[in-house]
Amino acid sequence: MQSILFILVPAIPLGLGVWFLFTRRFRAAEVMAGLVLSFAAMIALAVTGDGMQTLFTVAPGVTFVFRSDGAGRLFALLFSGVFMAAGFYALTYFKHEINPARFFAFYFFSLFALESLCMAGSLLTMYLCFETLTLCSFPMVLYDRSREAVAAGIKYLLYSIAGAMMGLFGVIYLTLHTTSSTFVAGGSLEAELLGNPPALLLIALFVCIIGFGTKAGLFPMHGWLPTAHPIAPTPASAVLSGVIVNAGVLCIFRVIYFAAGTEALRGTWVQTALLSLSLLTVLIGSAQALRQKHIKRRLAYSTVSQISYILFGLFLLESTAAEGALLHTVFHSVMKTSLFLCAGALIMYGGTADVDEMRGIGKKMPVTMWSFAIAGVGLVGIPPMSGFLSKWVLAQGAVQSGMPVFYWLGPVVLLVSALLTAGYIAPVVLGAFFPGEQEISTRAKRAPVGMLAPLGVLAALSLLFGLYSVPLRNAIDTVLNTLF
To answer: Domain ranges in the chain?
Structure first.
């Protein structure tokens, strides 16, 4: 059964993508069925438990392996669920477009690459799926083929390829110096490299993690995010920010915890450098978001900041911090996707992308703005929203890690970033519902139900996860118990 699912799960989105691309037409029922079936197949794979399947061998010792483990299933369920919500939204968003079939083709190709990445059982398989994701997702950025869209798409592609080449350096080194050709919980680095890690190992790990961190928006490789998001169609922006950036998080998680092992990094200059870069990125992203007037550019810089919360937790190499990182991976994905879908509705039916022109818009678009408010409050980290829980656990992990300087600097930076987050979320929400004497023009109108339902459901989930997250925490603890 499991071997069939390993083929079926990626085959569904791949087949639909090919169909939409070559027929140049689609029906809403086909898109909805494809998204639901992909999510259902991923649930079925999760239920079957751990397993591994070698699909084919390229050369001796070079195999393409799919694997189902707790970490992969967690990311896969998140990715396919968010893609389903954004895909339903896209059906209404593209209702009046000339050729939306092209968008949905690459949307399903991207889902195929993501699901394959989650099931990757080796470094080589992971790398190939990571590269495939870049090639499948960048056409969504340049969907409207304008000069700005083409420039943004090329920038995204160049950054991604540069990052992937850096990641390849580490993948090759680790493949040659690990005792297992597949992922092993806790890593499988050769024993002689652990006691006194050679300089080349540390350089390879640093370059590799920075490379995969490009997709996650880690400084200094974050430049593509604020360029691509304002230009891309809103459903593409939503999955870029809520899902595709987490592909970089997954690869970093695999490299550190399933290939090299935490002992290879603990206490080295690489760990110090990565922790420093992640906290610097948190501050840069939050500060830059404050300066942006375009709503999607503001949210893009917010993603730069919030994803580095996750990376900071992973780089601490401590179980509580890692739990907070994985919790924030789920919560940020849900909240940020909801915020981008709200932004798309505000731009399309509110008539503006400028946050200063959205005063009073809550009276015209109450569901959209209430959803934005709920998800935004969660992003700030105010209880009882889910963002508070993940940030609290991250701060706990930082203190418990005992890392010199970072055990107190981490929580301080997270607190400062939360205040900056409130600084760029609160004016939008307060201005929308309490405009004073300034009112939004009459061009604003309520968005269709097909757009409101997905963003509302995601906003509600950001609250529900904060009120009850026991099953999710248990699933994450199951993954981390094999690593620490």
So the answer is: 1-265, 305-484
